[in-house]
Write a structure and sequence with these properties.
- Helix content is 32%, strand content 21%.
- The protein is of the alpha+beta class.
- It has one domain (12-62).
- A two-stranded antiparallel sheet has the order 1-2.
- The radius of gyration is 18 Å and the shape is flat.
């Protein structure tokens, strides 16, 4: 099992923001950190599929989450 962790700190300057702005910042920062960890630890499988008839590339990601 791999435990993913993230933390963020808000300085006093940011406390002037609205509660919604602070919550959005925290959510985005923590999610970005977790996504970086998932990618760096190779916990996600990414598949690509080229379609030459439409000249496109489709990328799909799989992440298996097991809840206890």
């Amino acid at each position: 099992m791999t435990l993913l962790q993230a933390s963020t700190t808000i300085d006093l300057q940011m406390m002037k923001m609205s509660p919604q702005e602070i919550e959005n910042y925290i959510r985005q920062d923590l999610a970005r950190q977790l996504a970086d960890t998932i990618l760096n630890e190779d916990l996600i499988q990414i598949y690509t599929d080229k379609d030459l008839s439409t000249n496109t590339l489709t990328a799909r990601a799989w992440l298996k989450v097991v809840q206890e």
